[in-house]
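Morning run. Coffee first, then this:
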Amino acid sequence: MTAKNKCSITIDNIHAAKEAVEHLIRLGRRKIGMVNESETAEVCTVRYNGYVLALELSEPWRFRNITLSIKKCLTNAGVSSIVIYS
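And here it is:
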Protein backbone atom coordinates (compact mmCIF):
# COMPACT_ATOMS: atom_id res chain seq x y z
CA MET A 1 0.00 0.00 0.00
CA THR A 2 1.40 3.41 -0.92
CA ALA A 3 1.31 6.45 1.32
CA LYS A 4 -1.48 8.03 -0.71
CA ASN A 5 -3.75 5.06 0.09
CA LYS A 6 -3.41 5.44 3.85
CA CYS A 7 -5.54 7.58 6.07
CA SER A 8 -5.83 8.32 9.73
CA ILE A 9 -8.55 9.85 11.87
CA THR A 10 -7.77 11.27 15.28
CA ILE A 11 -9.71 13.11 17.96
CA ASP A 12 -8.79 15.97 20.24
CA ASN A 13 -9.45 14.09 23.48
CA ILE A 14 -9.05 17.12 25.76
CA HIS A 15 -11.54 19.13 23.73
CA ALA A 16 -14.00 16.23 23.44
CA ALA A 17 -14.05 15.54 27.17
CA LYS A 18 -14.28 19.26 27.94
CA GLU A 19 -17.24 19.66 25.56
CA ALA A 20 -19.04 16.66 27.06
CA VAL A 21 -18.76 18.13 30.56
CA GLU A 22 -19.73 21.62 29.39
CA HIS A 23 -22.84 20.12 27.77
CA LEU A 24 -23.83 18.52 31.08
CA ILE A 25 -23.23 21.83 32.88
CA ARG A 26 -25.49 23.63 30.37
CA LEU A 27 -28.16 21.02 31.16
CA GLY A 28 -27.94 22.06 34.80
CA ARG A 29 -26.03 19.09 36.14
CA ARG A 30 -24.10 19.94 39.30
CA LYS A 31 -22.32 16.73 40.32
CA ILE A 32 -20.48 15.30 37.34
CA GLY A 33 -18.22 12.29 37.71
CA MET A 34 -15.93 10.61 35.21
CA VAL A 35 -15.30 6.91 34.81
CA ASN A 36 -11.96 6.17 33.16
CA GLU A 37 -10.55 2.84 32.03
CA SER A 38 -7.01 3.39 33.30
CA GLU A 39 -5.06 5.80 35.47
CA THR A 40 -1.90 5.28 33.43
CA ALA A 41 -2.99 5.16 29.77
CA GLU A 42 -2.14 8.42 28.01
CA VAL A 43 -5.51 8.73 26.28
CA CYS A 44 -7.30 8.37 29.63
CA THR A 45 -5.07 10.98 31.23
CA VAL A 46 -5.70 13.42 28.38
CA ARG A 47 -9.47 12.91 28.57
CA TYR A 48 -9.35 13.36 32.34
CA ASN A 49 -7.51 16.66 31.82
CA GLY A 50 -10.35 17.87 29.58
CA TYR A 51 -12.89 16.85 32.21
CA VAL A 52 -10.98 18.73 34.92
CA LEU A 53 -10.52 21.79 32.69
CA ALA A 54 -14.26 22.09 32.08
CA LEU A 55 -15.01 21.86 35.80
CA GLU A 56 -12.32 24.36 36.75
CA LEU A 57 -13.52 26.90 34.17
CA SER A 58 -17.17 26.66 35.24
CA GLU A 59 -17.96 28.98 38.13
CA PRO A 60 -19.06 28.43 40.84
CA TRP A 61 -17.71 24.91 40.46
CA ARG A 62 -15.00 23.71 42.74
CA PHE A 63 -13.22 20.68 41.39
CA ARG A 64 -12.62 17.92 43.92
CA ASN A 65 -10.42 15.00 42.93
CA ILE A 66 -12.28 12.13 44.51
CA THR A 67 -11.73 8.54 43.48
CA LEU A 68 -14.80 6.44 44.15
CA SER A 69 -15.94 3.00 43.21
CA ILE A 70 -18.77 2.87 40.68
CA LYS A 71 -21.10 1.48 43.34
CA LYS A 72 -20.32 4.37 45.69
CA CYS A 73 -20.83 6.91 42.90
CA LEU A 74 -24.22 5.54 42.03
CA THR A 75 -25.50 4.93 45.54
CA ASN A 76 -23.75 7.26 47.99
CA ALA A 77 -22.13 10.22 46.22
CA GLY A 78 -25.22 11.71 44.62
CA VAL A 79 -23.58 11.95 41.20
CA SER A 80 -26.19 13.10 38.67
CA SER A 81 -24.18 12.46 35.50
CA ILE A 82 -21.20 10.33 34.59
CA VAL A 83 -18.97 10.76 31.53
CA ILE A 84 -17.73 7.35 30.39
CA TYR A 85 -15.06 6.75 27.76
CA SER A 86 -13.81 3.41 26.56
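The mean pLDDT is 79. Good start to the day.
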